[in-house]
Amino acid sequence: MIDVQKVNATKERILNTIRASGPTFPARIARETNISPLFIGALLSEMVSERKLVMSSMKVGSSPLYFTPGQEAGLETFTNYLNGKEREAFERLKQSQILDDETQDPAIRVALRKIKDFAQPLPARIGTRSE
User: Fold this and answer.
1) What pTM does this model have?
2) Could you give the CA distance from residue 58 to residue 102 in angstroms, rounded to a whole number?
3) Tens digits of residue pLDDT in 46-58
4) Which of 56, 63, 46, 111 is closest to 84 using CA atoms?
5) DSSP secondary structure letter of residue 24
6) Element containing residue 18 per DSSP (H, E)
7) Could you read off the pLDDT of 60-72 as tens digits, one per residue?
8) How far apart are the first and last CA of the chain?
9) Cα–Cα distance between 48 and 1 in angstroms, integer?
10) Is 22 left (phi over 0), alpha (psi -120 to 50) or beta?
């Protein structure tokens, strides 16, 4: 039988760990909380569905990063895990803030679509044309 209070207390420990350290991955959370990685994965998934945590589209190895709403800026510390073109797209976007998709080379365009945590499409109307 599952003890609901114990599960809630464990979720709170996980939440406090992430609040203190910023975006992180499940193995680090398991190590810091001394909880089984398998159990951590299940709890993180549940906490994302409860909207207590956000799961990034970026991965460290094969694991996504988890963070609390408002910690999005902390994802920047993990950009060294992006592949070459994704990192280049991130750097261009960071420098320019806005990139015209049509003027980018195809590899950068693909990379921009992969780095969803950093790049978001902004529809624009220029005259009668929508971009």
Assistant:
1) 0.82
2) 24
3) 999 999 999 999 8
4) 111
5) B
6) helix 4-21
7) 888 999 999 999 9
8) 55
9) 24
10) left
